[in-house]
Amino acid sequence: MVEPVPSSAAEDEPERSAVEEDAGTGGSGHRARRQPKKQRSFWVELPILIVVALVLAFVFQQFFARVYTIPSASMESTLHGCTGCYGDKVLVDKITYDFSTPGPGDVVVFKGPDPWVAGEAPVERSSNPVVRFFQNVGAVFGLAPPDERDFVKRIIAVGGQTVQCCDAQNRVIVDGKSLNEPYIHWVDPNNPRQEPFSPVKVPEGTLWVMGDNRNDSMDSRYQGNGGVNGVVPVANVIGKARFIVLPPGRWGGVSDTNPQENAQPAVLGLSAPGWQQGVPLGFGLVAAWPTLALSRRFGTGVRRAVKRKR
């Protein structure tokens, strides 16, 4: 009978384990600690952080929201853009119209249609390539005027509606109703008058826009010589102005009062104070008595003349 040959594996195992333990601990009997990775210096990480921040900001402004500088006074006093003052910087929501359509009262930023920009001079950029680079970067982040000729106005009427000016109280009329526009800014508060214009049927897919500074705004009334040439395609709308982010003293939301919400049936013609409107009625009443007396005398005289001839 063959005797089983004893295996030496069990005997060799302790030795192998001991060798592995010694190798892992360096023979000291303790497990070696991993050396921590050497951290990059602050000056190495700083440019990386700046680049990442700029990329994230660029993506955010391209697809979600963007800061725009208001370059003119056409939206006073809702948005400051007066000559010589620190113009407002406005955060424009670029995704809201992916789920809704622009409506009356919305303050929108849009790319100027061809009739609007035909006579506009492009934004000047420095001939110095370094300065021009920083100007372009500033335009992306709302710190300088953008290259494209963009505008900011308030929507007054949408496609299919008819707009005209003015009613007896110098108000804009849409579909036969006088608008309620509490946001209007008058250059001369003592003379709150705006230029009249003939009825315009706004084509479908377009918008009729006007500035809140009604006496100092080149808008749908004048661009492209007015009329249907002054409308703005909905496709040109970049987004809706939501918040004033700079300067700090102007922080707040941008009003989007719908002027058509409380519109009243329009009364056309010249208006007059109440006491003047009562003058014709009073004059009629006063003049009625002598007219009636004269008609009676005239009738009596005619009857007497007829009797004499008989």
UniProtKB/TrEMBL annotation:
Residue ranges annotated for the Peptidase S26 domain, each copy included: 45-245
Membrane topology: Single-pass type II membrane protein
Spans traversing the lipid bilayer: 42-64
Enzyme Commission numbers on file: 3.4.21.89
UniProt subcellular location: Cell membrane; Membrane
Taxonomy, superkingdom: Bacteria
Keywords in alphabetical order: Hydrolase, Membrane, Protease, Transmembrane, Transmembrane helix
InterPro entries, per database record: LexA/Signal_pep-like_sf, Pept_S26A_signal_pept_1, Pept_S26A_signal_pept_1_CS, Pept_S26A_signal_pept_1_Ser-AS, Peptidase_S26
Location (main, coarse): membrane
Catalytic activity: Cleavage of hydrophobic, N-terminal signal or leader sequences from secreted and periplasmic proteins
SUPFAM superfamilies: LexA/Signal peptidase
Chain residue ranges for the region called Disordered: 1-34
Record-level Gene Ontology MF annotations: signal peptidase activity
Family, per entry: Belongs to the peptidase S26 family.
The name this protein goes by in its record: Signal peptidase I
